[in-house]
Every structure is written in structure tokens, then in C-alpha cells.
Specification:
Largest sheet: 9 strands, mixed
Number of strands: 12
Distance between the termini: 44 Å
Strand content: 15-25%
Number of domains: 2
CATH class of the largest domain: Alpha Beta
Low-confidence stretches: none
CATH topology of the largest domain: TIM Barrel
CATH superfamily of the largest domain: Aldolase class I
Order of helices and strands: EEEHHHEHEHEHEHHEHEHEHEEHHHH
Helix content: 25-40%
Number of helices: 15
Structural class: alpha/beta
Strand order of the largest sheet: 10-9-8-7-6-5-4-11-12
CATH architecture of the largest domain: Alpha-Beta Barrel
């Protein structure tokens, strides 16, 4: 496990599950008591049971407490994760894709090395390599080996195109911790309504159970596959996948995709599946762009600092030309001298952290505003204004 400390708070990242946790309040006191030689207590018993907390972790917590980060309002002191677009190239032509396919570019490896080194030095927990198709990046194995060598968690999201047993072995030997395969349907007919590469995804998923336990499925939800989602979940369970990550469809460059967006009954279905299947051995993860759904699931049992849209608060992105972004789905970029400079001083992070005070209706009067904040990429694309509220949101409570 990886640990980072701010004032009276410990953040941890578990590589096996991909979970980030926050220890504060009474739990923080219990943790300090255990570190100081105290007996087991409910906090330690829980962490030991779920994450296998051990004596080595105790030493790492002590080290973290010697380097306490100054807190930042409405954000982690440093990013929890860094999403890096290794390449904009991809051999598929998915209907749902939001990328500009006319641009084909790989991030320069010298730039990537600098980013990995800084991320490790400031305490970023995880680097997520994506694209485009990350398997097309010529320096992928070197990049994974470098990041894992610093102890940073490393994941990739791939269509599975080009993944074979030999390449998978090389990825794992380089230090890859987690792999997500993109799949939007349990059949080629359903999957092909929004994305290509069904056979590649299925072939990749069949490889993984015998080779690697830390893998999952990424599914972009829409009207085209909502009736099929339980089939995909059951397929993931049969494979013994760690998770299924339910992603929200963001408006693409292609026209006509608005017809496939979810409605109220679809949200109710997702809510029911979450309650039915989510457990300690299998995680249904919900895209932070589904802030409204997350608020609906957890009601008021949320920390507003760490839920809803977490772009610029928990994670940030880097595109294939090496520029910084708060989210890969937003177009705006900034070129600052370092990750930390962008995180602390960037105009884009300041803009997104002001969402609660600047957002328009219907979000402004919603009880869930602090735990949701809508999706800025969706609102900007659909309504034309970064701070527009989600006019089509089906999961919210109004303040009367």
C-alpha cells in the first residue's frame, strides 16, 4: 500500500484493488495509537481484513507522517492519479469516440520520463496510461517499468487490440498492476452499436484470468446497452474480474449520439445492479461523471471534498503533446513547468474548483450540489457553457 499525509489525515492507495482510502477523525487517532505500539482496534482490524495492512505498512505510514503535505481547498494536496494519453493513435473507429481522429501523435518519451519522475517524487499514487490505444505506444514497456520502479501504481486501459500472451507477459514483467479492457456489450451486435473491436476485447479478456488477477472491464453506458449491462456484469464475475467500471457517455464529435443517453428508468436499473452485485470481492465502480448517481446511491453519507466530479480535485490528465488538462474529456490545456505548478496554480484547476459557486440551474438549487457538481465536459458540449447545469439530470433533489 502507498500512503500520503496531510494535517490529521492519511490517504492510502491499495494496488491490488485500485482503491484509495481516507483515514481521518477517530480512525486517524486509532491508526496513530496502533503505530505507537497500541493494540488492535476496529480501524486496524478493518484495514487488515480488507487491505492486508501489515508491519511494513506501519513503517511506510511513519515515513508519510514525516512529510506532511499542505492541504489545498477542495482538492487533494497532490493528485491521487495522473492520466496520461500516451498516443492519440488507434486502429479502431468507435462511434462513441470523442477524440479528433485527424491528429495522430505520441507523447515524447523524454517528456514522459520527466512526468513519471515528478509524479513519483510528489506522491502521486497511480499513473493510468491510456490513449488512443496505449498498446501502440512504442515505449510502453519502458514507461511501465520506470513508473513501477518508483513504486507508483500503474494501470492501462485498452481495447485489447494487439494483446497476446507474449505481450501480456512482458507488460506484467515490466510491473503493470492493473488492466482494464473496454467492452460495451456481451455480444458483437450490441457492442458494435457504439464501439469496434468486440473480438479483440473478448480475446484479451480470455487471456487474463490465467495470467493476472487485477483486471476489469470498462463499459460506457447508453441506451444501446443498458438492457445488456447485467449480462456484462455476470460475464465479468465468471472471469473473476476485480471490477466493472461503469462510464458515462460524453458527447462525441459525431452527430446523432444524443439519442442514446440514459433516462430515469435506466438510472434506477443501475442503482439496483449496484446494490445487487457490489461486494468486497467484486467492485462496481461508477465514473465520477455520474456524480448525480453516486449521490443518489450514497445519499448524505459522502465527503463533499472527495466525491462527485473529481477532475482537478483528485486526478488530472496529460495529453499526447505533453500539455496538462484537468480531464481528458475537456478540450482546454495548459503548459506549465510542472505537475505541481499546474495543480497549485493552473487556471483550469481553479476554474473547475469554483464549480459549486458558479454553476447554473438546475444544479445550483439541488441538495446534492456539493457531492455531484455535474460533468463539465457534458455540460460544455451539450449546452455551450462550462458552468451550465445539467438540464437533463434525472437524479437529484431540489432544495424547496
Amino acid at each position: 500500500m502507498l500512503f500520503r499525509a496531510t494535517s490529521e489525515t492519511i490517504l492510502f492507495f491499495d494496488k491490488n484493488s485500485g482503491d484509495t482510502g481516507i483515514i481521518s477523525g477517530a480512525d486517524y487517532s486509532n491508526l496513530l495509537n496502533w503505530i505507537g505500539g497500541g493494540q488492535l482496534n476496529p480501524t486496524i482490524i478493518y484495514l487488515t481484513s480488507k487491505y492486508k495492512l501489515n508491519e511494513t505498512d506501519k513503517d511506510n505510514i511513519v515515513l508519510a507522517l514525516q512529510n506532511i503535505h499542505e492541504p489545498i481547498p477542495k482538492a487533494f494536496a497532490v493528485p491521487e492519479s495522473l492520466h496520461i494519453e500516451l498516443t492519440s493513435r488507434c486502429k479502431l473507429n468507435c462511434k462513441q469516440c470523442y477524440k479528433d481522429r485527424s491528429i495522430e501523435k505520441d507523447i515524447e518519451y523524454a517528456r514522459l520520463e520527466i512526468l513519471i519522475e515528478e509524479a513519483a517524487s510528489i506522491g502521486v499514487f497511480q499513473i493510468a496510461f491510456g490513449g488512443g490505444e496505449p498498446l501502440l505506444y512504442p515505449h510502453l514497456l519502458k514507461a511501465i517499468k520506470k513508473a513501477s520502479g518508483y513504486g507508483v501504481g500503474v494501470s492501462i486501459t485498452t481495447s485489447g487490440l494487439g494483446l497476446n500472451e507474449q505481450l501480456l507477459d512482458c507488460l506484467l514483467q515490466a510491473g503493470l498492476d492493473h488492466i482494464q479492457i473496454s467492452l460495451n456489450g456481451s455480444s458483437e451486435e450490441i457492442n458494435s452499436k457504439t464501439r469496434d473491436g468486440f473480438q479483440s476485447a473478448m480475446s484479451a479478456l480470455k487471456l487474463l484470468p490465467g495470467k493476472h488477477k487485477n483486471f476489469g472491464i470498462n463499459t460506457v453506458l447508453s441506451k444501446t446497452n443498458i438492457a445488456d449491462i447485467e449480462n456484462i456484469i455476470n460475464y465479468a464475475l465468471r472471469l473473476k474480474a476485480r471490477n466493472i467500471n461503469l462510464l458515462r457517455y460524453k458527447p462525441a464529435m459525431k452527430n446523432g449520439m444524443e439519442r442514446i443517453e440514459l433516462d430515469n428508468s435506466d438510472y434506477d436499473l443501475i442503482f439496483g445492479l449496484f446494490k445487487k452485485y457490489n461486494n468486497k470481492n467484486f467492485s462496481i465502480k461508477v465514473d465520477s461523471a455520474f456524480g448525480n448517481l453516486i449521490a443518489h446511491i450514497y445519499k448524505d453519507n459522502l465527503d463533499s471534498n472527495y466525491t462527485g466530479c473529481t477532475a482537478g480535485r483528485r486526478f488530472m490528465a496529460v495529453d499526447s503533446d505533453g500539455s496538462f488538462k484537468v480531464c481528458s474529456h475537456l478540450k482546454q490545456t495548459e503548459s506549465l513547468k510542472s505537475i505541481l505548478d499546474f495543480w497549485q496554480n493552473g487556471k483550469l484547476v481553479k476554474q473547475i474548483r469554483e464549480t459549486e459557486s458558479q454553476i447554473n440551474e438546475p444544479c445550483q438549487s439541488c441538495n446534492y450540489i456539493n457531492n455531484c457538481r455535474g460533468c463539465r465536459a457534458i455540460c460544455e458540449n451539450k449546452y455551450g457553457n462550462f458552468y451550465d447545469g445539467e438540464k437533463d439530470c434525472f437524479v437529484f433533489r431540489r432544495t424547496k
